[in-house]
């Protein structure tokens, strides 16, 4: 706890002189809700809820937030990095699923839905085709490290299909993600957890836990952006 307090204090001191701007992208949208949770809720709603917790956590660290797709109206993947142009860092927020062959059916509120309790946990993605791959990787690793320090557990179920960029901090390489390689700035995609997992879905929907996760992510972003300034 003392180490984390020191990190936050150092970041706040630096941020006063070196304000940074983060383009915070809410994945999917009204027309494309993304993955459907075990209880039938669209991923976009989870992404938006987390963005609304993360934005004030970033701002508390002296970081300006540029809201991208908070209203769910952006229709194309290419439009997201365009909306982020000129910011210092692009962070795309998502919630994860699993391979179709792992899904099972269950009844929830009179509806037949799919779930899988096989995998849970967070993960991060970077592209080597991003114009700033080294900084993207550093920021992803910083976010992952702060999440682990806060007690959050990563998932490993995307390896080996998505190779590791930093295994200890759950950072994968995914070169062809449009929102990562078509930006003009360092970029990371964050999967907060697996909404097909019935227990983790409930955790991801819990406001107190969401704020604790947002605090860890914001600390990682700030530590990366202000490093060396």
UniProtKB/TrEMBL annotation:
InterPro entries according to UniProt: MurNAc-LAA_cat (IPR002508), N-acetylmuramoyl_amidase_3 (IPR050695)
Pfam families named in the record: Amidase_3 (PF01520)
Reactions that this protein is recorded to catalyse: Hydrolyzes the link between N-acetylmuramoyl residues and L-amino acid residues in certain cell-wall glycopeptides
GO MF term list: N-acetylmuramoyl-L-alanine amidase activity
Superkingdom of this protein's organism: Bacteria
Major enzyme class: hydrolase
Stretch forming the signal peptide: 1-19
E.C. numbers: 3.5.1.28
GO biological-process terms attached to the record: peptidoglycan catabolic process
GO cellular component: outer membrane-bounded periplasmic space
Keyword vocabulary terms for this entry: Hydrolase, Signal
Domain MurNAc-LAA: 81-222
Protein name: N-acetylmuramoyl-L-alanine amidase
């Amino acid at each position: 706890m003392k180490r984390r307090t020191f990190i936050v204090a150092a970041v706040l001191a630096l941020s006063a002189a070196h304000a940074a701007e983060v383009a915070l992208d809410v994945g999917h949208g009204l027309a494309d809700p993304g993955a459907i949770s075990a209880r039938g809720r669209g991923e976009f709603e989870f992404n938006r809820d987390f963005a609304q917790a993360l934005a004030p956590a970033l701002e508390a660290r002296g970081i300006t937030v540029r809201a991208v797709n908070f209203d769910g109206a952006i229709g194309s993947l290419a439009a997201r990095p365009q909306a982020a142009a000129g910011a210092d860092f692009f962070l795309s927020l998502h919630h994860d699923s699993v391979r179709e062959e792992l899904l099972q059916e269950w009844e929830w509120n009179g509806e037949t839905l799919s779930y899988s309790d096989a995998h849970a946990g967070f993960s991060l993605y970077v592209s080597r085709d991003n114009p700033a791959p080294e900084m993207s990787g550093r920021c992803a690793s910083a976010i992952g490290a702060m999440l682990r320090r806060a007690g959050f557990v990563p998932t490993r179920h995307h390896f080996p299909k998505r190779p590791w960029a930093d295994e200890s901090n759950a950072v994968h390489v995914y070169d062809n993600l449009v929102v990562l390689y078509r930006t003009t700035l360092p970029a990371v995609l964050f999967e907060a957890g697996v909404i097909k997992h019935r227990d983790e879905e409930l955790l991801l929907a819990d406001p107190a836990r969401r704020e604790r996760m947002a605090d860890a992510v914001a600390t990682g972003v700030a530590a990366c952006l202000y490093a060396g300034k």
